[in-house]
């Protein structure tokens, strides 16, 4: 895939070079004909037509006609050049994993206007105890942040999911690491890691965040069917979600210390649930900027076994983990 992208990029570069050479030849001919630099700027960059009405002089009439013709040619060439450059940038950007997904400037520029009713009158997280599916049904598709206490305490994952358990899965399942690079996604946040293999290659002292070691926090999506099958033997879809809800074909793991994700919104297609399997995490939610005049931010702390439900497509959020604790969560989408 990388080789194909490189070949496409080289092809685009050759096309740009050809157009550049045509511009050089065109500019040289115009200058030889008597067109000034100022006129060239007006023709090609200010998109103005400089048509001189000259009487009596055949040379000036030809000059004027030539400028009009060149204006059209120049405009066409510029359009082609811009299209090639834009197409090259977009294709190569999309072909680079994690470049676009982590570029919040692009996301923010394309974010649709928010309906502020999603956060109006929300002053705290809505907390449930032993909630049933029927009791939860009125809130299931709401943008209201919710916390279901102890809903995952009975999952085997509360005991079995560890750094070393996840490492063993990826080392033993053929193609597991490759799936992260080719189909899934890894978020390395502020770490120096470049792949999941790097994450699982760190020394034990750093895994445990012993004194002198740098803190780390990463997340990744699991879309390899064999990996997903093994993992889902240790947890289930939260029991309170609607029976007819659609669920994603991939789940997410987030693991590490100290500050988790920085303030951001998620560009995902559905609502999100996240089960806290290890450690304590504090969520901070902030409404979209266009709702600042109506809504206010909230924060809440999550204990092991709790399940958080947040519309992370609309609520800006960051997370902080209790000092010295490793946080491990599993999450997915529904809708």
TrEMBL record:
Query: Which InterPro entries would you find in this protein's record?
Result: Cupin_8, JMJD6_ArgDemeth/LysHydrox
Q: Which Pfam families match?
A: Cupin_8 (PF13621)
What residues does the Cupin-like domain cover? Answer: 134-294
GO molecular function, one example?
2-oxoglutarate-dependent dioxygenase activity
Question: Could you tell me which species this protein originates from?
Answer: Zootermopsis nevadensis
Source organism's superkingdom? Answer: Eukaryota
Transmembrane domains' residue ranges:
66-86
Q: What is this protein called?
A: Cupin-like domain-containing protein
User: Which keywords does the record carry?
Assistant: Membrane, Transmembrane, Transmembrane helix
């Amino acid at each position: 895939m990388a080789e194909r992208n490189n070949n496409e990029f080289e092809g685009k570069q050759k096309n740009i070079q050809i157009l550049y050479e045509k511009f050089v030849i065109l500019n040289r001919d115009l200058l030889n004909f008597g067109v000034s630099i100022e006129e060239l700027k007006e023709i090609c960059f200010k998109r103005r037509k400089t048509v001189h009405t000259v009487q009596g002089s055949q040379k000036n009439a030809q000059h004027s006609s030539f400028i009009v013709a060149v204006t059209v040619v120049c405009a066409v060439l510029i359009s082609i050049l811009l299209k090639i450059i834009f197409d090259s940038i977009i294709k190569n950007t999309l072909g680079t994993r994690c470049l676009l997904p982590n570029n919040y400037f692009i996301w923010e520029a394309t974010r649709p206007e928010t309906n502020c009713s999603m956060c109006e009158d929300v002053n705290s997280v809505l907390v449930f105890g032993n909630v049933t599916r029927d009791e939860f049904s009125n809130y299931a598709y709401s943008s209201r942040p919710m916390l279901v206490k102890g809903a995952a305490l009975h999952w085997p994952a509360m005991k079995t999911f560890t750094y070393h358990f996840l490492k063993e899965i990826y080392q033993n399942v053929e193609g597991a690491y490759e799936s992260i690079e080719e189909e899934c996604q890894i978020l390395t946040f502020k770490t120096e890691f470049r792949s999941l293999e790097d994450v699982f290659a760190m020394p034990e002292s750093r895994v445990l965040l012993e004194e002198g070691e740098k803190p780390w926090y990463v997340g990744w999506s699991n879309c390899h069917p064999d990996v997903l099958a093994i993992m889902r033997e240790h947890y289930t879809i939260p029991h309170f979600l609607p029976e007819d809800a659609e669920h994603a074909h991939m789940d997410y793991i987030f693991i590490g210390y100290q500050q988790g994700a920085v303030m951001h919104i998620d560009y995902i297609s559905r609502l999100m649930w996240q089960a806290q399997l290890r450690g304590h995490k504090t969520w901070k939610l902030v409404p979209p900027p266009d709702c600042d005049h109506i809504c206010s931010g909230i924060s809440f702390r999550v204990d092991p076994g709790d399940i958080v439900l947040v519309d992370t497509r609309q609520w800006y959020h960051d997370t902080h983990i209790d000092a010295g604790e490793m946080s491990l969560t599993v999450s997915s989408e529904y809708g």
